[in-house]
Amino acid sequence: MSEKSKVVEGSPPDYPRYRVEPGSKVSLAEIDPDETERYRKKKDVAKKLEAQRRRIRDLQERLYAENRRGLLIVLQAMDTGGKDGTIKHVFGGINPQGCRVSSFKAPSAEEANHDFLWRYHKSVPAKGRIGIFNRSHYEDVLVVRVKGLVPEEVWRPRYGIINDFERTLSAGGITVLKFFLHISKDEQKKRLQARLDNPEKHWKFSSNDIKERALWDAYQAAFEDAINNCSTEHAPWYVVPANKKWYRNLVVARTIADTLEAMDPQYPPAEEGLEKITIPD
Ligand code: AMP
Ligand code: MG
Asked: What is the pTM of this model?
């Protein structure tokens, strides 16, 4: 079996699901970031994306009402990979009361004085909620490894520590879904250039992005190890072709909708005797 074929083609449903099967080894270089199934342009999927967003909205309402389980969505990507855009386009329509986005930058002094998971654990969603991690505990085996911020004997054991952490969350009723938004190096160049060319995007540009870009291969290797070591039954990784933003949004949205549907959240039983109640004038 080729490495590529191990990214499972889902059936049913009738679309590639991009889930990295636990125990398999994917090679990012063999996964096409330009993949769009049979669709050619944004217009081809506009209605489909809206339908997935509606599914998420309805299921989130039930998850919130049930108040017994939660969903944690982890978004990781190279710079310009589309984490912010995915959040905006996939979650735009959902009830803010049931959802929280946590974005992680370099740790503060206080955060750095704790074990590396501390700040992430504090942001894990409560029961009934959806939590979105824009960057996550994976940074501690990505940037930290690539930049040599700690020695290998510190970051290497973190794969196992992360698997244990995610198992703890899942045992506590939190489903964990992890997306790697996979773009090509050429696509990153275009997106960085667009940030330079458009004054309204200047705020997104950091000259540090150029330094990080020079480390592209080291980052790809670090992502590959994180995905291969930490795609588990209880917390799978999905490698999402992300050169086309509209296709990326569709894949992420339907994966989330399918996951929520499989969780099958239920409205709690109503109080007894509601039918006998009349509201006083
Ligand atoms: P941005 O998402 O563009 O605002 O950038 C956030 C920056 O924080 C990125 O350069 C990340 O590599 C960095 N960052 C996030 N988490 C960590 C971490 N645990 N250690 C060091 N740097 C981090
Ligand atoms: Mg940035």
From this structure: 0.94
